[in-house]
Write a structure and sequence with these properties.
GO molecular function: electron transfer activity; heme binding; iron ion binding; oxidoreductase activity
Strand order of the largest sheet: 1-2
Main location: membrane
Pathway: Energy metabolism; oxidative phosphorylation
Largest sheet: 2 strands, antiparallel
CATH architecture of the domain at 126-286: Orthogonal Bundle
Order of helices and strands: EEHHHHHHHHHHH
CATH class of the domain at 126-286: Mainly Alpha
Binding site for heme c 1: 124, 127-128, 266
Helix content: 40-55%
Family: Belongs to the CcoP / FixP family.
Strand content: under 5%
Length: 292
Amino acid sequence: MSDTHQKEVDQVSGVETTGHEWDGLKELNNPLPKWWLYLFYITIVWAVIYWVLYPSWPLISSYTTGVLGSSQRAEALAAVEEGVAGRSQFADQIVATPLADISNDQQLLQFAMANGRAAFGDNCAPCHGAGGTGFEGYPNLQDDTWIWGGTLDDIHTTLLHGIRVDNDNARFGEMPAYGRDELLSKEEISQVANYVASRTGLETDEGVDLAAGETLYVDNCAACHGDNLEGIQDVGAPSLVSANYLYGKSLDAIKAQITNPRNGVMPAWEDRLDPATIKSLTVYVHAFGGGQ
C-alpha cells in the first residue's frame, strides 16, 4: 500500500484518489450521493425523536418511558384482557346451555368447536391422535365403537370423571386376569379365545374344542360382554364382535388379553379444566362423527 498522503487525480475518471492503492488499483475519493446523506441525516433525527417519544433507553432497574408513555406490554395485556372478557361471555353461555342445545346456536357452536379443538390439541391428542383416530390401547374417537357410550352425556361424564382413576365418580370396569391369577388353565384360555375368534371371523387353532370354549365364555365372560358378545356399556365391557379391538384383533391378542389383561386409564378432567372447556371438548369430540 502506498502512503495515504500521496493523493493524485485519476487520469481516466478525473477524480482525486484517496492515496490508497492495492495491487495497482487506486481508490477514488467519490463523495456519497446527496440523497443518501440526506436520508442518513433524517434517520438520525428520527432516532432522536423516537428516544424522546417512546421507551428506548434501559436503566438499572427500569427504562425510559418516553413522553407518550407508550407500552407494548400494556397494550398486549389489555388485548389479552379484552379477549378473556369476550371468551367469558361465551363460556358462561356454554355452561348455562344444555349440551344438546349448543348446536342450535351457531355462534355458541362455533365457540365450542374452536375452544374444544384447542383443548383437545393440548390435552387429548397425545393419546388419541390429532384427529382422534387413536392408537393401539387408545380408543379411536371417529368410529362407532364406544366402550362407555358415545352420546353427548356419555362423553361428558367420561371427560369429567375419567376411567379407572382416583375419582369417586370415575368409570370403573376391570377384566380379571384369568391366566395370571390362575382362574383358567392355559388350555381353557385357548378354548375361550378360539371361541371368541370364531365369532368374529378370525382364523382359529386347529383341533380346539369350540363347544367347551362357548361354555367357558357363558360361565366367565357373558355377564359383562353379553350373551351375544356385543358388550355392555354400563360396565365398560367392549363388544367382542366389533370390527375394532382396543388392544389388537388377532387370536394371539385375544389370548394375551384373557391371560393378563391391559386395563387402560383416562384422567378425570373436572379438576384440570373449567366446566366450559369440558363441555366444549364434549361437543368437539362428538363432532368427530363416531358419537351416538
